[in-house]
Amino acid sequence: MAVKIYHGDILFTPAADQLSVYENSYIIVEDGVVSQICERVPEEYKGAEVVDYGDKLIIPAFSDLHVHGSQYVQRGIGMDCLLSDWLNHYTFPQESQFRDMDYAKESYDAFVDDMLRHGTFHANVFATIHREATDYLFDKMEEKGMYGYVGKVNMDCNSPEFLIEKTEDSLLETEKYLSDHEGSKKVKTILAPRFAPTCSEPLILGLGKLAAKYHCGVHTHLVESVWEAQEALKLFPGYGSDAEIYERAGLMDYGPSIFAHVIFPTAEDKRIMKKHGSLSVHCPDATVNIVAGIMPLQQMASEGLKIAMGSDVAGGHGIAIYRQVARAVQLSKLKEFYEPAESKTITITQAFYHATKEAGSVFGKVGSFEKGYAFNALVIDNMEDSWSKMTAQEKLERFCYIGDDRNIKARYIDGKLLSQEF
Asked: Of 89, 97, 3, 100, whose CA–CA distance to 42 is shortest?
């Protein structure tokens, strides 16, 4: 058994209201998995290698549960547009370029490296309609040791001619994609209908059959805007809510169901999501950039729904999930100010929990340092001013608000130190 021990200020969130802090302590890792945390190294581990990080902060790596890998190249562009103009002028033309594999490879190489650089080791990624490019992204994440879900996007209506599929072609290409990646390890396939307004009912029902055949889940946008929620029900008459479209097709029965934004959920949407253990992904920067509204995070969490964080690049302008932790707190304050009867401000502890343990739960035992969890970790430094000491919690909060990748001094996946070169 390979044993390594790491010393530092150790911090993680076993629950949304619980911050576990072990300052000046040791975390013992056996075969890449956390064994215990202690103030002194136990006698039976006296011969093991100890990596001493002094008073640096050791935290779990982040999970991004909604990000468009294909939009990485357009991050921070067109942010003065509203959603429809942004999609038509920037996103759709740019995504169409992924038919060119040279373009796709350069884009996805940069995207994966930047996730790792910023401490995102687990990601649920939208690709494009192009199967070959999506295969490359899947393989690149696997090669780098990441945990992930990657979806080949489906869209067969209400989309530009240069970025639309025939229904039968979309299903055939998707099945080939699923089949080619059966038996993969830490990166898995997921079905990715873009959202209900760009998918016909035959396409959604066909994807449901593929979900049953290949036992995979679904990743899409849900009630992101008032328009989207209304348009979905207009195009799917006889359905009672946006979530019901995916439930009735069987898309929520065989794997994780991950829904981005969930800003305007009805009681029926929430009932369905809770029934299936779905994750709703809060994407704070994107929410502001596309003027969609603010997820009722605290209310949904209090009702027992699972919440995760997403960068939503390029609707969100930055890849760093730790910045979304800070932004989630900020937006909760705004929502409470304007809707005091319905909303409450969240804590940094709760936001960090949604970005680590709860988001990580979809990948297995990642996102925490409890016994049995993978040692997927970041070592954070240089958060203190030289003349003033800070607690571990204060270091975490400052990192989320003003830190960047230069403050990440070491990165570990399954106990293995990643190269600092990306």
From this structure: 3
Closest Cα partner for 320 from 376, 399, 227? 399
* 3-class state of residue 260 by DSSP: strand
pLDDT band at 8 (very low <50, low <70, confident <90, very high): very high
Rounded to the nearest 10 degrees, how much is the dihedral formed by the CA atoms of 84, 85, 88, 91? Answer: -90
Task: Provide the percentage of residues in the chain whose pLDDT is more than 70.
Answer: 100
Whether 413 and 376 have beta carbons less than 8 Å apart is answered as yes
| pLDDT at 401 exceeding the cut of 80 | yes
Domain boundary among 363, 383, 398: 363
Tell me: pLDDT of 291 over 80.
Answer: no
Q: How many folded domains does the chain comprise?
A: 2
- Helix (H) or strand (E) segment spanning residue 269: helix 267-276
Query: Comparing C-alpha atoms, which of 253, 249, 252 is closest to residue 236?
Result: 249
Report CA-CA distances (Å) from 276 to 16, 257, 296, 403.
Answer: 20, 8, 19, 36
Q: How many residues does the chain have?
A: 422
The Cα–Cα gap between 13 and 349 comes to 7
What's the pLDDT at 163? 95
Instruction: Output the average pLDDT for the chain.
Output: 96
What's this model's pTM, rounded to 2 decimal places?
0.97
Pairing of strands 377-380, 306-309: unpaired
Quick check: is 422 in a domain? no
Q: CATH number of the domain at 375, please.
A: 2.30.40.10
DSSP 219-257: EEEES-SHHHHHHHHHHSTT-SSHHHHHHHTTTTSSS-E
Extract the tokens encoding 383.
């958060």
